[in-house]
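Chain and conformation:
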Amino acid sequence: MNVVIADKAPESVPCDGIPTGRRVENAPERLRIDIDAATGATGMVAWQIDSVPS
């Protein structure tokens, strides 16, 4: 699948159960996340969003 966070460049994320992460600095109050599934993809997506003090 392709994931786009906060209008940044799309990132290809494998659908193999391996966690992946992406740091978003100076995130807006509302963070937009767009997902495009790969052809034939099945399953689910889960998110964990953490705030890190600067």
